[in-house]
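During the no-cost extension, the postdoctoral fellow (Dr. R.K.) reprocessed legacy sequence entries with the updated structure-token encoder. One reprocessed record is reproduced below for audit purposes.
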Amino acid sequence: MSIYEKALGKEYKKMHPKLQEKFGLTSQANIASISRGVMDEIWGGRIFMYPFLQLGTLKHISFRERGSQIPFTLENYAYKNSIGQECMAWNRSFNFSKTRHFDATMVYSSKTKGIVDYLGIDQDFVTKIDLSVLENGGIRLLSGPLVFNNMGIKFNIPSFISGVAEAVEWYDEINEKFHIKVEVKNKMFGTIFGYKGTFKTEYYSCTGGIPKNKKPRKEGTMNVL
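Re-encoded structure tokens follow.
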């Protein structure tokens, strides 16, 4: 059973079968997925935010580039981390003139009975994810308060300098494509960044385990939330 099925329970079966397949990866199955498509638009972020967004490129949590018709790749790998927790790696690539990354690792928390999202390649930032199934069989992921977590230091990031992320994904049977819309908003400054587009997903054997370069560079302290 995948971490998302554990978190959603009976609601999981209400998702479109294509989404159940995509969110159903487990480390035991040794199946990975790669999604390729185009982001119709990537927007957001005022000029004064650019230096902070650019710093986020080092951690694979943000980028300052914006545009339309941007090629996009998403790789998903289910694996177990160093303490045996089932994880799902989300490695997103946006191909501007330079390739930019937005990576995360999601884990099922037996403590909260939900999903915890460790952001970036160093897992410095952590948030809880609220999952819900949409009427069209899609899925909605909504982040909670952001926590900084590094080298034993942990504190809540004030809401006026952090953002809340909402991701909505659904399947279009007519065009046989997934649709995605993501927006990260700050309550004072509006949208930090957002993107929307379509993609198709393929699955392949991953018997050798998750590639080393797809794992976080540094594994954060688990069970922090």
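The CA atoms of residues 80 and 86 lie 5 Å apart. The helical segments are 3-8, 17-22, 50-59. The remaining legacy entries will be reprocessed before the final report is submitted.
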